[in-house]
Amino acid sequence: MSYQTKKRFGQHFLHDPGVIDKIIGAARLEQQQRVVEIGPGLGVLTDQLLDKVGRVDVIEIDRDLIALLHQRQDEHLIIHEGDVLKLPWPDLLIQPPYTLVANLPYNISSQILFKLLDHRHLFARMVLMFQREVGERLMARPGTKDYGILSVLCQLWYDINKVVLVKPGAFNPPPKVDSLVLTFIPRAEPRVDPGDEFLFKKLVKGAFTQRRKTLRNSLLASGINATAIDAALTRAQIDPGCRGETLSLPQFSALTRAFLAIEAVA
Ligand SMILES: C[S@@+](CC[C@H](N)C(=O)[O-])C[C@H]1O[C@@H](n2cnc3c(N)ncnc32)[C@H](O)[C@@H]1O
């Protein structure tokens, strides 16, 4: 391969046919399905996607790779140039729902996930490759060290399943860590009632602001008013001395609804 990979774009190109097959299989594509790929790179996944469906939209930041993609002159390949974090997705992806397939740039995978959560109506199914540690965090249970903001928010909206663990040798150049491919299937209903989505997210972020502190102090540190916190914790029957990282999704739901009830009274 003559192309010089760029570390700053998190480039690790997949070359293991078995892993490629598993990713494409997990996408469960039918000919009519519209597909988006973030970071097509040299196109190993893109080629397989184009074999299965009539149109693939790709989003790529690297100008050299974009030039290579244009050389293909494939009318079924729609190339969006730019930073996936900055591009306005609803303006580009105008025919949802899409299936999203991506071997993500690991340096920005969490930021991409937050953006995916904000635009989740665009995607019917997602097959995503992460650094193993990040993938495990998304599936983590309450009370474990891996459990965090993205675990709660992703588990609220998606059923997440493991597809395959991928060793560094499957990539060129090999990353230092193992990788994990996961499927995300949007739930017909969120796992629990978030009450108000904006507030739910704010409280989840607040609960994890200071992981070593108690839930009460962590929420305080996130800027929420002490009187409201105390009233809401009492109403939701949550111990103010517990740590935010022990809260289950039903407890985050109860906490959000308690804040809403208090605001309604005030
Ligand atoms: C891990 S590589 C995957 C490449 C290819 N899909 C594969 O599996 O071999 C990540 C890809 O994302 C691209 N990328 C990195 N940061 C990006 C960004 N902010 N916006 C869009 N693409 C980005 C990289 O240039 C690279 O092509």
From TrEMBL:
Subcellular location, principal: cytoplasm
Stored CDD domains: AdoMet_MTases
Broad EC category: transferase
Sequence ranges assigned to domain Ribosomal RNA adenine methylase transferase N-terminal in this UniProt record: 19-188
A GO-annotated cellular component: cytosol
InterPro entries reported for this sequence: KsgA/Erm, rRNA_Ade_diMease-like_C, rRNA_Ade_Mease_Trfase_CS, rRNA_Ade_methylase_Trfase_N, rRNA_adenine_dimethylase, SAM-dependent_MTases_sf
A Pfam family of this chain: RrnaAD
Molecular function GO labels: 16S rRNA (adenine(1518)-N(6)/adenine(1519)-N(6))-dimethyltransferase activity; RNA binding
Residue sites binding S-adenosyl-L-methionine per the record: H12, L14, G39, E60, D83, N103
Top-level taxon in the UniProt lineage: Bacteria
UniProt keyword list: Cytoplasm, Methyltransferase, RNA-binding, rRNA processing, S-adenosyl-L-methionine, Transferase
Catalytic activity annotation: adenosine(1518)/adenosine(1519) in 16S rRNA + 4 S-adenosyl-L-methionine = N(6)-dimethyladenosine(1518)/N(6)-dimethyladenosine(1519) in 16S rRNA + 4 S-adenosyl-L-homocysteine + 4 H(+)
Compartments reported by the entry: Cytoplasm
Role of this protein: Specifically dimethylates two adjacent adenosines (A1518 and A1519) in the loop of a conserved hairpin near the 3'-end of 16S rRNA in the 30S particle. May play a critical role in biogenesis of 30S subunits.
Record HAMAP family: 16SrRNA_methyltr_A
Family from the record: Belongs to the class I-like SAM-binding methyltransferase superfamily. rRNA adenine N(6)-methyltransferase family. RsmA subfamily.
Name of the protein: Ribosomal RNA small subunit methyltransferase A
Species in which this protein is naturally found: Pelovirga terrestris
